[in-house]
Design a protein that fits this description.
heterodimer, A: 111 residues, mainly beta, six-stranded mixed beta sheet, 11 strands, globular, B: 117 residues, seven-stranded mixed beta sheet, four-stranded antiparallel beta sheet, 0% helix
């Protein structure tokens, strides 16, 4: 079945880079996504990558996709305290466009 | 990006009453919307897929008579929690699917915090 796994916590110092990792099982996924959720709020789409791409960069965000290993990562450069949040990785299921979410990684940025 | 709103943002109700939550796509049309439930410190659990003009598709284990979904227009889907009980207290989030220019993404609403007393 479809499954997405993430580590639960990551702590970094302000100004460092953060790397959040994700593994997924469905090799037929066409899109993979990163969402950010702040406390008490909905999910904000940060970025997505199409499965035929290896890398996508958008300002401070870099997404790397290793399709062979079914591994996705999100790198946040120059991490700020405002980046503290829960980050969800998701893959698009082949069934009707549903998203399969990971458990979320809580990123804590210390000054 | 596309904007999705939810109303209300918070609701407190008595056990046994029904609560309606609205999800609107503000600057685009969405033929497909999704309803999720999120427990504290947990991931999102998909409850159902809402398709404009047709019946919703519910995930396994979700009671369709308990969680009524209506997607009557291309910009509005509603979730009604009928005869709510304290165990229905949760954070409910909707999303709208956007497919254009070769992309396929979901934009999420801000969520509705339901507390059943």
């Amino acid at each position: 079945g479809e499954d997405v796994e993430q580590s639960l916590f990551l702590s970094v110092r302000e100004g460092d880079s953060s790397v959040i990792n994700c593994t997924y099982t469905d090799s037929s996924s066409t899109y993979l996504y990163w969402y950010k959720q702040e406390p008490g709020a909905g999910l904000q789409l940060l970025t997505y990558i199409f499965s035929n791409m290896d890398m996508k960069q958008d300002q401070r965000l870099t997404v790397l996709l290793n399709k062979k290993d079914k591994h996705l990562s999100l790198r946040i450069a120059d991490t700020q305290t405002g980046d503290s949040a829960i980050y969800f990785c998701a893959e698009k299921s082949a069934q009707g466009g549903k998203l399969i979410f990971g458990q979320g990684t809580e990123l804590s940025v210390k000054p | 990006g596309a904007v999705v709103s939810q109303h209300p943002s918070r609701v407190i109700c008595k056990s046994g009453t029904s609560v309606k939550i609205e999800c609107r796509s503000l600057d685009f049309q969405a033929t497909t919307m999704f309803w999720y439930r999120q427990f504290p410190k947990q991931s999102l659990m998909l409850m159902a897929t809402s398709n404009e003009g047709s019946k919703a598709t519910y995930e396994q284990g979700v009671e369709k008579d308990k969680f009524l979904i209506n997607h009557a227009s291309l910009t509005l889907s509603t979730l009604t929690v009928t005869s709510a009980h304290p165990e229905d207290s949760s954070f409910y989030i909707c999303s709208a699917r956007v497919r254009k220019w070769g992309t396929d993404t979901q934009y999420f609403g801000p969520g509705t915090r339901l507390t059943v007393l």
